[in-house]
Write a structure and sequence with these properties.
two-stranded antiparallel sheet
């Protein structure tokens, strides 16, 4: 069955309803891919591919026992997934369908595959708020392991994590507990789609950027910063009704007085333009 665009944003919104801690990341990622392409896509083969990885890991665990290295042995070695360090900013690296076709992508896109396959084994698996480089944490039999999907699923110890941190924050940076705070599945998806938004904006593809913001708002309908950006960008594109909807939604939320005055003023200006 072909997955088309009919009600695609609503389906994405439905998938991401609730507290956002646990979402079907694979299906949401596929929806983002279909919506971003703007064309129907047959997703059956891609679902089957991920199921095959899941089955292969289950078989390996049955034969050798549960270890985080088994995860990388299947995904990175058997299926040849890796980070794309050569063309890192390529939009394809944030498109889950293209990541599967090309076997390479951004850290967060690869992490969705790792998280899905790990959770299918009944393991605890979550994204981490590590600075500058998306990592995941796997819990197996009470032990927790930090895994780096971009670097072929390497299991990172404290010294390696400190080295990664210093590449981002400088030579004096030290690991602190906040670097290992888990992120919700909602924020994993937002991070994936934000990579698309930033790359489209860099190209000055403002219509595409507005579409990406629509997808981010389907994931997180009440994020104030996204609503403000959607209002500003849609006003710039002369999509006044969409801009009015964004600012109107801000006024329905619990925001501080200054933000409320700013949104109200912009909303009034847009409404005058419709008359």
């Amino acid at each position: 069955m072909t997955d088309d665009l009919t009600n695609g944003l609503q389906r994405l919104k439905d998938l991401c309803a609730g507290d956002g801690e646990r979402i079907d990341l694979l299906e949401a990622g596929f929806l983002l891919s279909v919506l971003g392409r703007g064309a129907p896509t047959e997703l059956g083969p891609f679902r089957q591919h991920v199921t095959a990885m899941t089955d292969d890991l289950a078989d390996l665990v049955h034969r050798r026992g549960a270890t985080p290295e088994a995860l990388s042995e299947v995904i990175a070695r058997s299926y040849a997934y890796r980070g794309d360090s050569e063309t890192y900013d390529d939009l394809q690296n944030a498109d889950l369908v293209r990541v599967i076709e090309r076997r390479k992508g951004l850290p967060v896109a690869l992490s969705i595959l790792y998280l899905h396959v790990a959770r299918a084994q009944g393991w605890q698996a979550e994204g981490l708020a590590f600075p500058g480089h998306f990592l995941i944490r796997i819990g197996i039999d009470g032990a927790r392991h930090v895994v780096d999907p971009f670097h072929e699923g390497a299991v990172r110890d404290a010294s390696e994590l400190r080295r990664l941190l210093r590449q981002v924050l400088g030579p004096d940076a030290e690991l602190v507990p906040a670097h290992f705070d888990p992120v919700s599945d909602r924020d994993v998806l937002l991070r994936l789609e934000n990579n698309v938004r930033l790359r489209l904006a860099k190209r000055e593809d403002w219509s595409g950027t507005a579409g990406s913001l629509d997808r981010m708002l389907a994931i997180a309908p009440d994020r104030i910063e996204l609503l403000f950006e959607a209002g500003q960008l849609n006003a710039r594109l002369d999509k006044r009704r969409a801009a009015i909807a964004a600012y109107g939604r801000i006024l329905e939320l619990d925001v501080d007085a200054d933000l409320r005055r700013q949104a109200s003023a912009l909303l009034q200006e847009l409404r005058r333009g419709l008359n």
